[in-house]
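Q: Got a minute? One more chain.
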Amino acid sequence: SARRRAKGYFTFGEPAKAILQTYDEMNENGLFLDLLYGAPAWSLVLQHWKSRDSDCPIANRQVMYVHSGGLEGIASQLTRYKHKGLIDSRKIQIG
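A: Always. Here it is, folded:
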């Protein structure tokens, strides 16, 4: 719904610039995420973790993430981001 999108939530499987930014940021820091579950989850976690909102239960606390795999589909997801015009084709590595 529009209300959920306004709060930073994502439509499952729909390419989004914020998801791609989180994906890139986490990859640069050595945490490799998928674009369906990991990057959207981290987008929301980071949004709240960096929050100055005193009502946020995880603001300024340590977070443990259990990576459950699922990296095989990254190439196909990056292709979807390319078709949406969010990335350049040089970023996609098939193999």
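A: The radius of gyration is 14 Å.
Q: Perfect, thanks.
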